[in-house]
Amino acid sequence: MLDINLIREKPDWVKDQIRKLNDAPALARVDNILELDRQRRTLLTEVEAIQAARNRLNKQVGRLRGDKSLSAEARAATAAAASDALERADYAAAVALMEGEQAAPPTSLSPEVALESLMTALKGMGDRVNALNEQVKEVEGRLDEQVLWLPNLPHDSVPVAESEASNIAWPPEGEIRTFDFEPKAHWDLGPALDIIDFERGVKMAGSRAYVLKSWGARLQRALISLFLDSARAKGFTELYLPYFVAEPMMYGAGQFPKFRDVVYFDPDAEVYMLPTAEVAITNLHRDEILDEAQLPLFYVAHTPCFRREKMSAGRDVRGIKRVHQFEKVEMYKFTTPETSYAELESLVEAASDICRALKLPFRRLEIVTGDLGFSASKKYDIEVWSPGCNEWLEVSSCSNTETFQARRSNIKYRPTEGKKAQFVHTLNGSGLATPRVVIAILENYQQADGSVVIPEVLRPYMGGADRIPASV
RNA sequence: GGAGAGGUAGCGUAGUGGCCUAACGCGCUCGCCUGGAACGCGAGUAGGGGUAACACCCUCGUGGGUUCGAAUCCCACCCUCUCCGCCA
Questions:
Q1: DSSP letter string over A215-234?
Q2: pLDDT for residue A17 is more than 60
Q3: Which CATH superfamily is domain A164-468 in?
């Protein structure tokens, strides 16, 4: 979420930043937001003035009724005059009369009647406050809705370009193997090795469902353990998380409202299945004020991820590259603003180190403004080479969202030097996502005889086995 | 799922319609005292909105309601604890 003060104070700069994202609908919202913000503040000024007057008047009601030093005539006069002032909506005069700052002219009304009329006037004032508060709520609702649709703004270091076609690929690391036979794609290798069963997966759960079997299931479980251990060795605290969350968490992480389409929802329990562990970890410290001394906080969690892939229907339909349910290990950092960009670099390195350990050829992709996505200020992807599919597969995406998620989730920290609490920066990065790593291992480590060599670093997690045998 | 008890500022607690502009204790910060500390004494110590800055407004689990006025009364919901039932 962007800071409304920033939008109000530098609207043209904000618009320039959004233009870099190539997001016309978002751009159009800015003027709308400015207008709603103006309306909101105008209404607030009015309602708060009435509330302030009402608070003071109410305090005087008890005194007017109970003060024995006041004569019946004086009470009647004050009540009648204040009541008249309220009729004219002259709140200042009513306050002055009730607080005794201003003398009331005599009245012919009885104290009872005058008091009754004052009560009626005060009631009207209360009704007016309620009506205005309704309006404030309505305007605020529309304002929030608009602001929640605005994407994060890019960091100055992000290359400005229109689309993903311009993403900057860093030189690949690791050896891209040359085969003396035609390398197979995983959708052929998997069934041949009897470790991926597409047909039975689809039978049970529909399109894009799959079953990992035997060495396939074991390979994935080994990878998850490797990923978690690798992060833990770098100081990340392991978490076991709920796999579903209540709606506000989806807003907090920036999934909602824009990506409502991609999540699974249980309408009875009113909970949403995680599309990524990032959603849960972001909200771990929701509504908290952390001490600067606690920061940075590093977390890692393995969770399944559930995505409807509605918007990608028809893309990557073969194999297990794009599926409704997959496993991911997610790394996450809560940092101060001063350190977040250095932490982003080390986060990408942490993901890269896993590819190095698995001896998979990989490259870093520097994401340009037009492909940044909704929540990131800066983003790098890690892609591994997949010789069977003949493409680079995204296995990690590392982002610094700066205060974007922290604002939505209300996560602050108190600086050591006594200043006011301010928003933390949050970063997230996969480390890594399977089954894409399963794909890469099968395709990169396949042998002419149909077997697949198990990367050395994984063998301790697979009972010491060094190979997935070709025949069942 | 049933019964009961609760939810008040970092923590613990008080507060049953206006003196709550939320008290007190602990913790924390600063000052005095001291050679330096402890003790003692004094002051400060939630968040949000709003303003050029004040003023001011909102928040006592959440949302409604009653009332001139609600932490306090009424209704609904959420969560925690104790007991019971069911259960991997």
A1: HHHHHHHHHHHHHHHHHHHT
A2: yes
A3: Bira Bifunctional Protein; Domain 2 (3.30.930.10)
